[in-house]
Amino acid sequence: MSPSARDARLIWLLSASAVIASGLLLLILLFLAKEAWPVLSHIGAAKFLLDDGWHPTEGTFGLVPMLAASLAMSALAIVLAAPLGVASALFCRFYAPPLIGRIYRWAIILLAGIPSVVLGLWGLTVIVPLIIWLSPPGTSLLAGSLILTLMMVPTVALTTEAALAAVPQSYWSGAAALGLSREGTILGIALPATRASIFAGILLATARALGETMAVLMVSGNVVQVPKSLFDPVRTLTANIALEMAYATGDHRASLFVSGLVLTLLVLALAAAARHTGGQVVHA
Amino acid sequence: MPDATGTAVTSTPRALRYLVLQGVTWMAAALVAGAFAWMLADIIWQGAGRLDWSFVTTSPKSAGRSGGIAPILVSTLLILTVAIAVAAPLGLATAVLLSEFTRHGGHAGRWIGLSLDVLAGVPSIVFGIFGNAFFSVWLGLGFSILAGGLTLACMALPILIRIAESGLRAVPNDWRLGAAALGMSRATVLCQVLIPAATPALVAGLMLGIGRAMAETAALVFTSGYVDRMPSSLFDSGRAISVHIYDLTMNVAGGDRSAYASALVLIALLIIINGAAIGLADRALTRRITPI
Amino acid sequence: MRVKKLSRFGIAVALFTTFSSMAHAAENKLVLTGSSTVAPLAAEIGKRFEERNPGVRVDVQSGGSSRGITDARSGLADIGMVSRSLKDEENDLKGFTIARDGVGIILNSANSVSALTDQQITGIYTGKITDWSAVGRKAGPITVVNKAEGRSTLELFLHHFKLKASDIKAQVVIGDNQQGIKTVAGNAGAIGYVSVGTAEFEAGQGTPVKLLGMTGIAASVENVRNGSFPLARPLNLVTRDEPSGLVKSFIDFAQSADVHDLIKEQFFVPLGP
Questions:
Q1: C195 and C37 Cβ atoms separated by less than 8 Å
Q2: Are C54 and C27 in contact (CB under 8 A)?
Q3: Which chain A residues are Cβ-neighbours of C186 within 8 angstroms?
Q4: What ipTM was predicted for this assembly?
Q5: Both A30 and A66 in a single domain?
Q6: C238-272 exposure pattern, b = at least 16 Cβ within 10 A, e = fewer
Q7: CA–CA min distance C143, chain A (Å)
Q8: Per-residue pLDDT tens digits for B18-57
Q9: What is the span of the domain harbouring residue C42?
Q10: Quick one: C131 and C67 in the same domain?
Q11: Is residue A207 in a domain?
């Protein structure tokens, strides 16, 4: 075989792989749509928004309470995780003694790798009993948010740290030349300069929190309702799919694929927003 | 009032600001580290008591309350093997195309890259229901190790491609030019020069992909199922270790200690895999920096 | 080059043997999915069936009765497990009863309540009674544990108390029976309803839960057997087609007296004498 023929065959093979790899996303969206279509076509999309409550066996398919629960849980988690994550990054870079900083950074990386099911196990056996003691039933919006916070802190911390590391040296020397204190430089120059990347990291962490399933399913009680207090048990969109997919049939099953579609679109919108801010996509 | 703005550069508020910022970061770090240490201590404390050699070599008894996790480890390994066997060649080929055969920033490359980044953002439960609808039902694979492995392959593909691509891009351009000057075909250059040079990065990507797949639960519950027995073929259902932890936690009263012991095994495996990946990535980096 | 060819040959041989062993395995495999009440029993019956028929493999997955119906219909499972009578719209399936079971109310062992009337249970589950002091016991909030929609135990419960799924105000929603028991065992103020057989089995394993009677009749295996317990149900195996071959021999075995000891061990009621 001549070299050029070999090359042609190689390129053909590579292109075929790339087509499969990039077609996968299309295939997934197509299949979600195909499975969701029966219920969308004869019930209509409006019912999912307007119905009061989720009782698929009685023909009501309101997704709003679960959407609200997903958003509330992620919002609460990000309110806790964003300052903790940014402060962690500042700690590692500027305030920790070198050895402690290294150990802390190592711990953050380890925390990022803890499987969500293990966080759920710990949440259910340690955090939930503590919350029961405060206000039963324990499995609640708060429990879910706390576990999500633990998951999100590493993402925010590592993106922030990477962004701070990328601040050009000239900024620091310039600030020093102007007689700015280190704190003044951090607050007035380094953080504003990395704002876009930090924000992108927070958006990515939020997207991950919205998509998290097992840990949330394990600790949040799974009652379909719009949460009115931190101690209310709630069911998120993801938990709904995991809880009912095992046995759902007909319209019920199709409506779970609708929630899957809604969830995917929500998460993709966040990812697109993160990309738009110009931040680096980090696979934490 | 002018005084207040004027004092911003004087020493007292500066010292105060230093103290506040230092205090806040120390407190945040202590909080995060404290919570994490508390969790790790629980996992080790509760898990280590149940953990011994027989735990990893025997089958679960009484729904996992006693006995071990041997069939679960075997199923996990088989699911990962299927995932890697499918994702690695596909990922490598796509990465080669992206780094060697598309213009950087060109149309094709941009679109492929975009679709991969989007795919990386899809929640795992969505992969789970897709896998159930596509592999288990539509392709008729049922609840099987094969269906679970293929679903994980889809999930791990983006991260694998991205890391392999950056590994290949890191190979100095002089090598390509030198090889071309010697009259080697691009296929030869790829097999003899580029892939060997990028091997540490490729393996690191693979390891990270494995680590991510191993921690996965939501994508497996509806694809590989949860039969906790030794699988005899890839068409059997097999319970992955993360699914086992989930089942013990949720459905087995008195299963918490076994759940913690399994969690300990899982975390230990993840640390080994990720450690290897980081080590290899570092080697790849030093190689890149070292002049030829 | 020789090494490359050899390794290619090796891969081909490996693939071929894997596939042929798979094909072989598929012929002698039974897949059962469905009710979490029936699953542990079916797994035990499966183990004994495997012992008597070497080379056969029986895989059991839980997930709920509706899943048993769907999977049997779609062919994803050879046999579906259903812990209730078949409905009219399900008469395309063939049902085989293997045992009977009841649904009982469970409380944490630490709870001093020993009986609840139907009105009180209805009140608790519809959110009218939210504190144990309302049923004459030590004050403390009630945690209502309900099953997820589509579960047969929920349907039976609703039917008995003449409620709709949307009437129920719960604090925790669970999937499998075992999860309900674990939730109640971990919360002193919780109330739930689960399979009598599963609850007795778990209580026997040392789990801190207790079963309450229903309308004055104790939730016992005996009362399910003699038909006096109000919330009783059959445990069924269902198939899409008239059973034949391995499926038939498994169902025959599951209905035979050879497995009565297994049924009793799980605190269910065997059929026949």
A1: yes
A2: no
A3: 129
A4: 0.89
A5: no
A6: bbbeebeebbebbbebbbeeebbebbeebbbbbbe
A7: 6
A8: 888 889 999 999 999 999 999 999 999 999 988 889 999 9
A9: 2-100+234-270
A10: no
A11: yes
